[in-house]
Amino acid sequence: MDKHREKNLQLPLNIVSKDIGYDVITRSNVNYNNCYHCRCCAGGCPFFQAMDYAPHGIIRLLQLHLYEQALKSSTIWICVGCNTCSAVCPMSIDMSAIMDALRQIALEQNIKVAQPSTLKFHTEVLNSIQRYGRTHKLEIMLRYKVKTMDFFSDMDVGIKMLTKRKLDLMPSKIEDMEAIKKIFKPEE
Ligand code: SF4
Ligand code: SF4
Q1: H helix intervals, the chain
Q2: Could you tell me the residue ranges of all domains in the chain?
Q3: 92, 95, 119, 164: most buried, per Cβ within 10 A?
Q4: C-alpha of residue 28 to centroid of ligand 2, in Å
Q5: pLDDT by residue (tens digit) across 58-99?
Q6: Rounded to whole angstroms, how far apart are CA atoms 73 and 59?
Q7: What is the CATH class of 3-108?
Q8: Stated pTM of the model
């Protein structure tokens, strides 16, 4: 780790080891305490309007040790990890890494997921990668529809994509499936 990065990760005194804030910092490799709330992240986030807290609002909750609110927020599930916010952040805060860490902790702690359909979608994408080494979009969409029992919304988009041949009918596997198996192998 370079010296600048190491300094950036020095923990503030008000974070005690083993608390959730420390966990977020170690998982994400981001010291969110460097955020000074300029709000540039919110200004650039394409999903800001759909979130219950703005991206920097999640950081504020963490800074105030209001972890439960952060873990229960819809924001952590609505964030798509596009990194638009990180690109404009003057403190180079990797927001999507923070959101990833919060999602992991929320699942491990059985926190009620604020956007269950998002989790279902994520799960189907991962299942597809585990099966084929790449995503098979049509299968992901069909499985997601069955899981959510929502068969008709976005139907027009799906038909358009099919007619424009944007969706492969049959899945195809990558050659090196052994590498994929290793990625998904549970830690011992
Ligand atoms: S852009 Fe960076 S410093 Fe500014 S509020 Fe967002 S995370 Fe904080
Ligand atoms: S990474 Fe998440 S919070 Fe940042 S701009 Fe993209 S959707 Fe918004």
Answers
A1: 3-8, 20-28, 40-44, 55-63, 67-72, 75-78, 84-88, 95-108, 116-132, 137-148, 155-163, 177-184
A2: 3-108, 116-184
A3: 95
A4: 15
A5: 999 999 999 999 999 999 999 999 999 999 999 999 999 999
A6: 12
A7: mainly alpha
A8: 0.80
